[in-house]
Amino acid sequence: MTLIIDRLNVSYGSRQVLHDVSTRVLEPGSFIGLIGPNAAGKSTLFKALAGLIRPRAGTMELNGKSLDALPRAERARQVVYMPQAYGCNAALTVFESVLLALKQKGGWRVGAEQVERVSGALHKLALANLADRPIGALSGGQAQMVAVAQSLVRAPNLMLLDEPTSALDLHHQLSILTRIHDAARDGGMVVIAALHDLNLAAKFCNRLVLLRDGRVVAEGPTREVLALPAIGETYRVETSLETSRSGNPYVDARLPRQNAMRAVA
Fold first, then answer.
1. How is residue 63 annotated by DSSP?
2. With DSSP H G I counted as helix, E B as strand and the rest as coil, what are the percentages for the chain, rounded to 5?
3. Beta carbons within 10 angstroms of residue 221's beta carbon
4. Displacement of CA 109 from its chain's centroid (Å)
5. Cα separation, 229 vs 80, whole angstroms
6. Which helix (H) or strand (E) holds 4?
7. Which tens digit of pLDDT belongs to each residue from 242-265?
8. How far is Cα of residue 22 from the mean position of the Cα atoms in its chain?
C-alpha cells in the first residue's frame, strides 16, 4: 500500500499548523521516522491521516484512493493510530484489550484464529506473562507496549505511532521497534512513527521526514537526512553524523559552544 501526502494544510481555527506538507511516495514495507522538535506538527499530521481532523486543503492517498473519501469504518480498518496518551478500560485484561482491538475489524464472535493472533502478538512483544493482568494494574511502560500490540494485531495498511517508545526502557525500546520494523517489512504496510530519539530513528527507519513549524524541512533516506545541516538548525544544536562499529549511523549532538558555556556558568 503506497501513501502519498500532497500539499496538506491543517488549521485549528485561525491558526494554521501544517503548511503544504508533502511527501514522496511512501512504499509498502517502509518504516518512516517522523522527526522534529516539540510543536512541529507531528501529532496534527497523524490526526489528519487518521481522519480525526479535516484538512483545510491538500490530499492524502492510500493505494491511489483518497483517505477522506473512504467511509469511516473502512478508514478505521485501513489506518490505525496510536496517540501519545494511551487510554483503555482498566477493568479489561491485557488479552481482552488486544482481542477487542482485533475485533473492531469484524463481528464479535471469537474464533480460534483470532485467539491465536492475539496470543502471537503478546508473545512477540514479551507480554504473554501479562495476558491475564488488568490494564489498570500495569505500569506506564507496560500499558504502552499493550497499545503497540493492539495496533500490530490489526495488521492495517497504514500504522501511525505517536512516540511509541516514550515510556519504555532501552531494552523494550529496541524490542518494540524491532517488532514494528519487521511487521512493516513482512506485512507490506506503511508505518510512520514520531520519534524524538534520532539514534533510534537512525537504527530502525528506512526514511525520515523532518518537520519544523508545520513544514517539511527535509525528507529522504535516513542517512542522507541525518547528514543535513537542517538537523542541527532545526534542533538548535551542533551535530555530526558518525558510524558505529556495527556500521549503523548515529548522530553526535552537542549544544553550541556559547550555550554550553552559559550552562556551565
1. T
2. 40, 25, 30
3. 12
4. 30
5. 33
6. strand 3-12
7. 999 988 899 999 999 766 545 544
8. 17
Q: Are 216 and 210 in contact (CB under 8 A)?
A: yes
What is the bridge-based pairing of β-strands 158-162 and 190-194?
parallel
| Most distant pair of Cα atoms in the chain: their distance | 65
- Condensed to tens digits (0 to 9), the pLDDT of residues 1-42 reads 799 999 999 999 999 999 999 999 999 999 999 999 999 999
User: Against a cut of 0.70, is the pTM above it?
Assistant: yes
Cα separation of 84 and 100, whole Å? 20
Cell 543535513 locates to: 228
Q: At residue 201, what is the residue type?
A: A
Give CA–CA dist 212/19, Å, rounded: 10
Helix (H), strand (E) at residue 209: strand 207-212
